[in-house]
Amino acid sequence: xxxxxxxxxxYGRGGSDPEHQAHQADIQALFAGxxxxxxxxxxxxxxxxxxxxxxxxxxxxxxxxxxxxMKARFAKGRAIRSWDPLFAKLFEQxxxxxxxxxxxxxxxxxxLTTNDPALxxxxxxxxxxxHRFIQEGSARAExxxxxxxxxxx
Length: 153
Description:
By secondary structure, this protein is α+β, with helices and mostly antiparallel strands. It has one domain (18-142). It contains four helices and four strands, in the order H-E-E-H-H-E-E-H. The protein has a four-stranded antiparallel sheet with strand order 1-2-4-3, covered by helices on one side. A hairpin with a 2-residue loop joins strand 3 (97-104) and strand 4 (107-114). It is globular, with a radius of gyration of 15 Å.
């Protein structure tokens, strides 16, 4: 994000409560350990199945906790990165997106699916963003996610 672009938070600005602070700490730990993470995605007709793993047991634990925390935030309507148009759009459509998690010893697998074909590109774009975070770490934390052309408003 360039200096001339100001972040516009669509759903508040995070939070200073203990829950939000714990989530932020986990996100920062994942950014710091990004070189020890790997992610494999299988595209489904209605979404994705992605597994994110680490041989570092501490990072694997953080991955499992982070995925569960983000699923809970999504269900509660507690946005994260609401300045990012992709995350804001996913948040707006959350009732049409199903999230299923399955834990692994070395991390987590998540299925994000929808019955609305128009939302599949959003799910794929979110997955691409997470792959980019794993490849580049916090260097990409301030960048807006790529938005599918059909979803740009």
